[in-house]
Amino acid sequence: MAFPHRLDAPELPDFSMLKRLARDQLIYLLEQLPGKKDLFIEADLMSPLDRIANVSILKQHEVDKLYKVENKPAVSSSEQLCFLVRPRIKNMRYVASLVNADKLAGRTRKYKVIFSPQKFHACEMVLEEEGVYGDVSCDEWAFSLLPLDVDLLSMELPEFFRDYFLEGDQRWINTVAQALHLLSTLYGPFPNCYGIGRCAKMSYELWRTLEEEEDGETKGRRPEIGHIFLLDRDVDFVTALCSQVVYEGLVDDTFRIKCGSVDFGPEVTSSDRSLKVLLNAEDKVFNEIRNEHFSNVFGFLSQKARNLQAQYDRRRGMDIKQMKNFVSQELKGLKQEHRLLSVHIGACESIMKKKTKQDFQELIKTEHALLEGFNIRESTSYIEEHIDRQVSPIESLRLMCLLSITENGLIPKDYRSLKTQYLQSYGPEHLLTFSNLRRAGLLTEQAPGDTLTAVESKVSKLVTDKAAGKITDAFSSLAKRSNFRAISKKLNLIPRVDGEYDLKVPRDMAYVFSGAYVPLSCRVIEQVLERRSWQGLDEVLRLLNCSELAFTDMTKEDKASSESLRLILVVFLGGCTFSEISALRFLGREKGKREQKVGCGGQGAVLRKAPRLAPAPLAGLAVGGIAG
Amino acid sequence: MDCYTANWNPLGDSAFYRKYELYSMDWDLKEELRDCLVAAAPYGGPIALLRNPWRKEKAASIRPVLEIYSASGLPLASLLWKSGPVVSLGWSAEEELLCVQEDGGVLVYGLHGDFRRHFSMGNEVLQNRVLDARIFHTEFGSGVAILTGAHRFTLSANVSDLKLRRMPEVPGLQGAPTCWTALCQDRVAHILLAVGPDLYLLDQSACSAVTPFGLAPGVSSFLQMAVSFTYRHLALFTDTGYIWMGTASLKEKLCEFNCNIRAPPKQMVWCSRPRSKERAVVVAWERRLMVVGDAPESIQYKQLTIQVLLDRLVLRRLPLAIQICEYLRLPEVQGVSRILAHWACYKVQQKDVSDEDVARAINQKLGDTPGVSYSDIAARAYGCGRTELAIKLLEYEPRSGEQVPLLLKMKRSKLALSKAIESGDTDLVFTVLLHLKNELNRGDFFMTLRNQPMALSLYRQFCKHQELETLKDLYNQDDNHQELGSFHIRASYAAEERIEGRVAALQTAADAFYKAKNEFAAKATEDQMRLLRLQRRLEDELGGRFLDLSLHDTVTTLILGGHNKRAEQLARDFRIPDKRLWWLKLTALADLEDWEELEKFSKSKKSPIGYLPFVEICMKQHNKYEAKKYASRVGPEQKVKALLLVGDVAQAADVAIEHRNEAELSLVLSHCTGATDGATADKIQRARTQAQKK
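The joint structure predicted for all components is written out below.
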């Protein structure tokens, strides 16, 4: 298809090592509790765990029964209970309630809590407050990086975005630093480091401290990865707010890709069962279409189907010997391909049904108008109608946020009326959602009378003031302006198109948004890598409110081979979208480089997770949506 | 001429020896050594002398004097002994001088005569007094063994971790044993003692009689015993003039030697020559010295690693120690850094130098040498009671996390908090927070948090899950009415089941929002209260479920239930905008498939949302007949779309041609798929050609 695999593409490091490491460590931890035991697993650790150690491995190490950690009393009869959980306070209360119930019943068992990826003091504190600290042994499973694909790692920390960008809670920064440290121990030091954003800077500094403390471990190792780029999600909210139109992104938007796999329902499988499909480079059909603009995908798949048919048809003229050969050597592969093909064709049809309707076209049109900054009134009315008609709670919020960020906040009248409409449509509990979105800087009101320069001088004062360096993002975001329009102009994010943009032969990263917009995050990465520094990007940094928060670090002695120098690791702190991954893959092929990405908190776009609207206003910000 | 052998003298028949002075002692002793208590530290360490130890009965002017010299006799310290009578002196492996008093008290001094601490060997020792004492060395450290006036043994195997053990009684023991020694076997300390012809081994639980393997008969008393430094070997001197040498377990004999001297020796010690690997015992009488040797043994330096050696050197000769490290090519962390750190720890004990000078001197010498822990040095300073110096030293500690534990110990919690935040380690911050919480009153604690947003966020997160009331207090203290409002809204969902309780919580929230000057949120909350009350009334009057529906869904539910009047009333009360109401009714009536009511509604007034939505919704319900009714009413701009929706391609084409709109023409053309649309397609093409001609 459009991106032939370049022959000179550099070899990717062997990331499966991370899996083996995690598995060995888990087994070691399980063996620390010899004998039969029941394992309680936190729901959102199940998929990551499954990628590391399947049930039979667990059974081999004397795990008897498996339970999900949920708000129900456990019925386990085992003498040893092991809990595999995220370091969350509610989990501690769950463990404590179990232990205390046993105590009441006069029962003694062994309890072990394994925290992943690390334990927090606050958790132990809760165990202590609940009076069970002495009964429970605690351990850490330092499983912080899950290889989802040959070129994609994820920390699978859905709360990262909320904790850091909304609550200003910095506890995951240490986890990021540890993960970077692990990568540099396994794959050699990174000769070139770049970063932008406060979280990126703090993670980087903490990581450097770790490296210095364990001096010499990575010294002298040949670097396998030439560059590392750390980027805070709040540097670019816009991209995460746009509807995705590359195939993998659409599959994510439509069916949700979780931990590298997707559940296709009956509407895709055309049977009464749903099917769990692993989406990665090993799926040959998927691998060829994942980065394609959706408009090309169906054509490709039908061509593929015809080719497949032709290969089957070759049987007709075969003699016995040829037939035997065909059956033993080719048939299995063909059948496999056939199966994958029909899955993706099914998914395509289902997406088409949902997305090619007029509604979707209108939505995309509005998004493009917002990105380009014309017909703002018309777009605002469109959003209002969208809310009134209860089209989709999450999409409405996404559009509102996109309007806010591209326009430096909503004008007061719209800010009030859109919120009022939204509350009428979806319930008053979303007052909390709006309060959270405002704090995160996603949905704000234009400050009346604040001229651009006045705000800017305020912000720059905040930034240069040393004490203000400690102000958490949650607060400083209130003072920030997004300046999207100016940034867009400066970085040329809206390509000038003469005639039709040929989506079959993309000429720049804008193809991931139908040629209408180059993802800001990817453009920044591209620019910095081209310059090998932030030089000449001062104005962009000022507009991004990151003048003090961008850094470059090059090692003087360049021991890296030219091969490894072409490998780039991009770390999105707060999650990334499949569109960005596709854009970076495109960039890699264009420049003959390859990128890996690490997404903190998986790669779901901001505001893109399935909305949970029921009576759960406690979840606050976009009701569990803004996880990213 | 070859003179190498000139100073060798014959020894017996087949051996030669030579004697030469390594160095002369620099000291200037007035007393004979025999009149002093003497202790030389192992590994060529310092020498301690206690002069006049036994002259306690005389005038106070002649008190004992404790002097410490280097191994070459350079005076290091001298002090008047003012405590009780001393029975025994000895050096620990850490080069601390242990002075065992008659009352069982042990005073500990440093190399420079600085008093460190003291401990007691227990009540039993105090009552029965100390008859004899030995300081011995084990792999755990240095121990003290005491023989009391009641002929019982008490020992501690490690004076840095004092655990007193009273050894069992030796059956039939009337007087003091003729000789005894402490042994260390299998990591346990024992006592070996000789009573007449018998040898006993004491361990914690039992006293057992032992016999040396292969000992010549006729022994009626053991006069002296010596254990080798490694506790592997033992030498016994008998009243028959025999020297038995063997393993400390007494189960193996190395050799036996008859020296034909029956007088008890003054001293007997093991000595070894590491290079020749020979083992030997030196026996000394008043005017005679004898070396008895046999099989090879090598000195074990296990207890004395190079690091310990350097530590000991540093107190005397800093530059030499550093040179040794460089010579030995020790890694910096093990060598030079260690030396400097050790030197610094010594430096902070110089009480006559000001805090500033000490801190500066240390920093100048140490700089940022890798492996040097300023926090360790600071801890030492704090141990010497120099808190201010400790804080100054901590400033040089590059890892802020390392500063925190000591700062907490010194009760500088606020400073500890800043340092913890700097370190980026949130767990450390949390630890300090818990300290602060216990240490300060609530008001001060909150004020401290207020100035540290990072810590505040962390604590808030904790409170959100574990201490909701504290969270409220935090917001209150900050006058953060916005967050207080949100807090009460959450509370209205979480805690309260009854509608009155929920409304009350919402009222509190609304009040908070007013205080926060957030009128929008206040009004929205008041609307919510109104809606809740109304929903409760609807449930009572109409049945069904209304609570917690959105306003939109409440109205929809009413329409679906056929309560149109109520729906109208609600829409008016809550000022639902016209557009929304039209969308809402349209959707609800179509869901009901109440086409008659829909038509009536469509004619009630001019639709604010146009008529295309009517067409769309009818088609969605597959009612083409109804859809067509509305298609005719759709405005010209959307007419083509409407006609295409109801499948009237031909008419759509006519309208598009009439509009002369290229986009509309293409749209219609793309719908010309059916077999009957051929003519229409041609018509459009013709119109296009014509348009181009014009």
